[in-house]
Write a structure and sequence with these properties.
Cytochrome Bc1 Complex, Chain D, domain 2; 5% strand; single chain; two-stranded antiparallel sheet; 16 helices; mainly alpha; 2 domains; globular
């Protein structure tokens, strides 16, 4: 193993000695911990991931909000799903089908979701593996859960297609939106059944499903779960990321640049970053209140009028979980800006600086850094309310962390070492066309 010992920022040139203060480094990811999928199923999921046929108005694909050009996110603070035109920061509201609101939370990246340790998903963890439930999963749908989702990664696909703001569309704009509005999700005529019917009607998809699924012998036997499982197989394979310079370092196959090595020492040492950003993917998969600014529509039920987003509390109902959000993985994080559950920060350095002392940072937060497609909505109701800001700050239980500007620069350098050129360049990439013939999302 070739590692250099960093002490007080000086390379001493001593080999086979760990970086000082980094005894809690994780082990490198192992092949055996990743889900394996047949190539033909991955290729089928590849087409579906980029196909707008799954959205109510046939205008939004999974890739619209999770595009490799933006690190499998969408490059904006809060995205526009249904009713948007274009991609990433260039996406604008469609004047002929104006969105009702922004998507309430920043689009999370998709790296390594096929790894076994990802057993909880979304910013608030509203779906997770639960062996005590009949479906093996805990989700907001509870009794409406279908059997047949092959994994948690597959099950998470069921939510964007049901969201009016993301993919379904609103009210009676289309048959899927109408079914969602009426509360008909499963069963004949339900939203998932109607999505499946669209795929069944495309001969290329029908042939691919018949060829890859033993239980599918005719187009009408393709279920929404089959569609979701195929997309999950693609995501698991295409967005696997474990060949970064940091991975090479963990495997004893390379060294980090001096600045990144100093950042690693801070991250796993006095910076206490690894208290939450633990494990091979820099996440403990738990929920923490860290005082990130709140913008946009927030998360509220239809009968509620507030714009706050209390995060994990919306799932558990526990006051102690107020304003707590899931620790994100930091793989390829240099490519997934903006940062925070509401995309509040434009740069890694800016986020780290405020994250080190979030209570002090809230009053001085610079709103100019957000990346928001123009939309005639109120985005700053929470930050304009001193009581709401105080509630966010009061939930922070951690002590400030002393970081100099040099420390922050070193931490950014370390985080850049988590960028994986092979994963970022893509394996299957963006297809030229999809079987529906609809436009493929591309910059």
């Amino acid at each position: 193993m070739q590692r250099k010992w960093i002490l007080s920022g000086v390379i001493l040139g001593l080999w086979a000695v760990p970086v000082a203060g980094t005894s809690n480094l994780p082990s490198a990811p192992q092949d055996s911990d990743y889900a394996q999928h047949p190539d033909a199923l991955v290729a089928l999921g590849h087409q579906l991931f980029y196909d707008p046929i799954l959205s109510g108005n046939r205008e939004v694909a999974c890739a619209t909000c999770h595009h490799p050009a933006f690190g499998t996110s969408d490059g904006v603070s809060l995205g526009l799903g249904d009713g948007g035109v274009g991609l990433g920061p260039d996406r604008v509201a469609d004047p002929d089908n104006l969105p009702e609101q922004r998507i309430p939370r920043n689009s999370p990246a998709l790296w390594n979701l096929g790894h076994a340790e990802f057993t909880v998903m979304f910013h608030d963890g509203r779906i997770e593996v639960d062996p005590d439930r009949p479906s093996g999963l805990r989700t907001p749908l509870e009794d409406d859960m279908m059997a047949g989702f092959a994994s948690l990664l597959s099950a998470q696909n069921m939510f964007p297609v049901l969201s009016p703001d993301e993919m379904a569309g609103h009210y009676s704009e289309n048959e899927i939106a109408q079914a969602v509005r009426q509360g008909r999700i499963t069963g004949p005529g339900g939203a998932w059944d109607r999505i499946a019917a669209r795929v069944q009607a495309i001969p290329d998809y029908a042939d691919r499903f018949i060829a890859t699924h033993d239980h599918v012998s005719a187009a009408e036997e393709i279920a929404f779960t089959d569609i979701s499982n195929a997309i999950a197989a693609f995501v698991a394979v295409e967005f696997r990321s474990d060949t970064s310079p940091f991975d090479a370092y963990l495997r004893g196959q390379g060294d980090l640049p001096e600045e990144a090595a100093r950042g690693l020492e801070i991250f796993y040492g006095r910076g206490t970053c690894a208290t939450c950003h633990a494990g091979p993917f820099q996440t403990d998969h738990r929920f923490h209140a860290r005082g990130a600014p709140q913008l946009g529509p927030g998360k509220a039920a239809r009968f509620e009028t507030h714009r706050r987003d209390t995060g994990r509390k919306r799932v558990t109902g526990r006051a102690a979980d107020a304003y707590a959000f899931r620790t994100p993985s930091l793989r390829n994080v240099a490519h997934t800006a903006p940062y925070g559950h509401a995309g509040s920060h434009a740069t890694l350095a800016g986020f780290i600086r405020d994250h080190a002392d979030p209570v002090a940072a809230l009053p001085r937060y610079d709103r100019a850094q957000v990346v928001l497609p123009e939309l005639a909505v109120e985005d700053w109701a929470i930050m304009d309310d001193p009581d709401e800001v105080a509630a966010i700050a009061a939930a922070v239980a951690t002590q400030p962390i002393a970081l100099s500007e040099a420390d922050i620069a070193d931490l950014v350098a370390f985080l850049e070492s988590l960028s994986d050129p092979e994963a970022l360049s893509g394996r299957l990439g963006v297809p030229a066309t999809v079987p529906s013939g609809l436009p493929v999302p591309r910059p």
